[in-house]
Design brief:
The chain is mostly helical. The chain has helices at about 5-25, 35-60, 65-90, 95-115. It contains 4 helices and no strands. The relative contact order is 0.14.
């Protein structure tokens, strides 16, 4: 696969959208004393911007990638972004259980892109 607008831009946009969505879903955990309605509204506002990245990513990428491949790319990016956020922002520690789980998810991604088994 060559590096074209249709192959690269969906990945770039999905990385950016997942950074915003991770902040929207988990950023409020750094502010446990904030009112719930504030956390929801701020998260919703961040998620709205995330949609402005995710929808074009899927529109641009569909055809070059199948829907299953786009979803797989998004999930792998999402896990990668989440791990960085959990470790560096939330201060959580990763365990071997996490590593094994992520390896199994990446193995699933491999089979999605591998094509039909023969």
């Amino acid at each position: 696969m060559s590096f074209t607008f249709q192959t690269v831009m969906p990945i770039v946009l999905l990385v950016a959208s997942n950074v915003f969505m991770t902040v929207a879903w988990y950023g409020h955990l750094k502010f446990p004393h904030a009112a719930m309605w504030v956390a929801v509204m701020v998260s919703w506002g961040i998620a709205l911007f995330e949609y402005w990245l995710a929808v074009p990513a899927n529109r641009i990428g569909y055809g070059t990638y199948s829907a299953a491949e786009l979803k797989t790319i998004q999930e792998v990016i999402s896990l990668t972004v989440f791990v960085g956020f959990a470790v560096f922002v939330l201060g959580e520690k990763l365990t071997w259980n996490h590593a094994v789980g992520f390896v199994l998810i990446f193995a699933g991604a491999f089979f999605i892109f591998r094509g039909p088994l023969r």
